[in-house]
Amino acid sequence: MPLPFREHPLRRAVAAELHARTYDPLRAPARVAQLAVMLGEQGPEASIEHLQRLLETFGGPVPDTFDQHYAADVGPLRLGWERHTEFVTYTFSRQGAFDHPFAASVLDELPAQWLRTLPGETIAAVTMAIEACDAPERDADTLTALFEGNPVIGSEVVAGSARAWSDLRIHSDGFFHILIRDCSMSDNQAGRLAKRILDINCYRALALLGLPLAREVSPALSEADRRLALVASRMTTPASSSSESDLLAELTSLATEIEALTARTTYRFDAARAYYGMVQQRLEQLRQQRIEGLQTFSEFLDARLAPAIATCEATQHRQSDLAERAARLTSLLRARVEVSLQQQNRRLLESMDRRAQLQLRLQETVEGLSVMAIGYYGVGLVGYALKGLEKGGLPLDATLGMAIALPFVVGFTWFVLRRTKKRLTGSTESASRDLA
What we know:
Shape: rod-shaped
Number of helices: 9
Radius of gyration: 46 Å
Oligomer: single chain
Distance between the termini: 71 Å
Order of helices and strands: HEHEEEHEHEEEHHHEHH
Strand content: 5-15%
């Protein structure tokens, strides 16, 4: 049926996003296992192809396309697959009684070859057991033994409808172990609780990925800080143009190194902060109540995660501060070099002005000599003419005529030279204005 309105091309995509992180209802007793796999450069396509092979193995329907979330039955297990920005999660669950919560994982029922060839690298692996409230109660020693002697944390969750315990350690089987006792939860509540705890474990691991990187780049940042301080101290002393060029080259190199470190770490640090926010959100959604004598999940994770995220944020702030300082020093040094160049240019212009004035004086001297020389030859020519006329019988005194002609010849010569110079100067100024 056609819609009576024009639809935005992303309307259905953003509506589907509300349901992209779904959960499957669970009923105790049940066991759940989840793998969170970093894909890196492989992208989700490799994970989708691997998922299709699993579906083919169990003879189930294989869809051609996968959205952000996919769920299906694979043999006796329920599969949930989710695609995230940089990782995917595989969640497998099975209803039914069990003798020991962690004696075996539901992953044992999957093909071993399929698990070994999972594309990407596993960052989080957890096995969870959900037992009914009528299961035998465990005292503190029994709980400790269940978690291989490690200190146990736990709390009442879902406003007292269930209890959850864990030690948040990797056990000998390679998994984190989580135990939930369902007292009065509905199937939907149990499914949501399991997903939230699995999300906490996954996002906790991803948030902590920034800490090793922060520790790794800290020595390089300390070295950059030291070099930056050294350059700043060298800038306080008078320096030649060559040393200023060396300082500018060193500052440019240092700024490039800082930018390279920033580009390498920015995404990881921003992601760590975002994942930490999601951990805090999921912890709040658990609605925890204290079990006497045990740390709650919030207390334990805040004590470990908060300092790690603070370290990442401090390292990121330090990188930004170093980049800003390098930029300021570069600007100051460039201004210093420009002032030095302007002073050199001014001295050069003053020297050129002095030379121009000297050339002008020389030119004026040459002009005077030229007037005298041309006047001399002009008077000589007049004299030759007068002497010729005198010889021809005209009553003339050639010498007196030359004396009378002298000021007129010199004056005329001076006038012609001045007019020629003025005309040449005017044409030069007009050409300069046209070029400007």
